[in-house]
Design brief:
The complex is a heterodimer.
Chain A: E1 6-11, H1 20-33, E2 37-42, H2 65-70, E3 78-82, H3 83-88, E4 101-103, H4 105-114, E5 117-120
Chain B: E1 2-6, H1 11-19, E2 25-28, H2 40-47, E3 54-58, H3 59-64, E4 76-78, H4 80-89, E5 92-96
Parallel strand pairs in B: 1-2, 1-5, 2-3, 3-4
Chain lengths: 121, 97
């Protein structure tokens, strides 16, 4: 098989308003399963996917936050939260899962330019 | 060198522009072409960009929305053939939507 390529998934949609968050996770997991280098960044409204205490039992919606916590188990190398977006949403970073790293604007731009493929969801 | 295609206005366009650098190009398509209208809000959006960055809008989408003759001077109209050339010319394409 040819050398792995790097995939950057930008998750910028809120969790339950569309199928975009699910598509982002599906792509990330698929690329990781094929041994590609995968990074996921939650930014803009996407940081709302990381809010703690999401309870979808009464709504019948599928809770994506458990899968987000498990991304690294499925060989997604890096999972980031975009710091300026988290600040804008006044998200409490101490309640975000430990395995999610913070990323600044500058480092994100760097990641965008270095990744072979960038996909926005 | 990245070609950014943008198919909506608003925060989608602003996020794209915040990530774009001067070697990049932005191509407005679908509802993104509304950002090409020469009005004060759009003038403000486009004046704060890195100098040297190329900005394009797809002619068919401009024409469909009746804005071909209302465009900002710094945005160049492109047809589908030129769109294809741009995708080949740049290292990668990011689709913002």
């Amino acid at each position: 098989m040819s050398a792995p390529q790097s995939y950057l998934i930008l998750a910028r949609s809120s969790p339950y308003g569309s199928n975009m968050p699910k598509a982002a996770l599906d792509i990330a997991l698929t690329a990781a399963a094929f041994e590609q280098e995968v990074a996921v960044v939650f930014l803009d409204d996407g940081v709302l996917q990381l809010l703690p205490n999401q309870d979808t039992e009464s709504s019948g919606l599928k809770n994506g936050s458990k899968m987000i916590s498990a991304l690294k188990v499925y060989e997604v190398q890096h999972v980031y939260i975009h710091l300026p977006s988290a600040e804008k949403s006044e998200l409490d970073l101490s309640k975000v899962p430990d395995e999610i790293e913070a990323i600044t604007d500058e480092l994100l731009q760097d990641l965008v330019s270095k990744s072979d493929h960038v996909m926005v969801f | 060198m990245i070609l950014h295609t943008v198919n909506k206005t608003g925060d989608c366009l602003l996020r794209c522009l915040s990530m774009a650098s001067q070697d990049d190009a932005v191509l407005l398509i679908e509802d993104g072409v509304y950002a090409a209208i020469d009005n004060s809000a759009n003038q403000f959006t486009w004046t704060s960009l890195p100098t040297g960055m190329s900005c394009y809008a797809l002619v068919d989408d401009l024409a469909a929305r009746g804005i071909s003759d209302k465009m900002l001077a710094q945005i160049s109209p492109v047809d589908w053939a030129l769109f294809v050339s741009l995708t080949a010319e740049y290292d990668k394409v990011i689709s913002w939507g």
